[in-house]
Amino acid sequence: MGSKAVVSVYLIISLCAAIFVTRGVAQMQNPQAIPGLFPPGLVPIDLVKCWSSLFTVQGCVLAISNSFFSGKFENVEAACCKVFSTLDANCWPHMFPLNPFFPPLLKDNCARIIPNSPAHN
Fold first, then answer.
1. Scanning 34, 80, 104, 114, which has the fewest C-beta atoms within 10 Å of its C-beta?
2. pLDDT tens-digit profile of 5-29?
3. Beta carbons within 8 Å of 37's beta carbon, 6+ residues apart
4. Residues 65-86: pLDDT tens digits?
């Protein structure tokens, strides 16, 4: 069998598999609806909830992402710092998985901008 024939057979099998798979099987189920998947109390963090408060302040997400990539915090304003300081610390590892040191650095910088904001301990 030549390479063209192998590719053709592979394509035919893939098309048949795609046709016969039912629509319901391809849809993902809600992780909370699958009993026993997560231990009680360890429900996955909702990233939409974590990021939604930052979207309420205009330019906050952009300022934080610029700080994340540049390491400079001068564009993060007080309103953004105020919202960031209210985020649950459990959100941080899921929001910034590539750099776990960034959230404490940003929070420490925000503590300088807003005097009443608690610094990271």
1. 34
2. 776 776 677 655 555 555 554 444 4
3. 31
4. 999 999 898 889 999 999 988 8
Residues listed for the chain: 121
pLDDT of residue 118: 54
Angle between helices 60-70 and 78-85 (to 10 degrees): 90
In terms of Cβ atoms closer than 10 Å to its own Cβ (0-12, 13-18, 19+), residue 76 is buried
Do 110 and 85 contact (CB within 8 A), yes or no? yes
Domain definitions of the chain by residue range: 1-29, 45-111
Q: How many CB atoms neighbour CB 46 within 10 A?
A: 11
- Residue type at 114? I
CA distance 9 to 21: 18
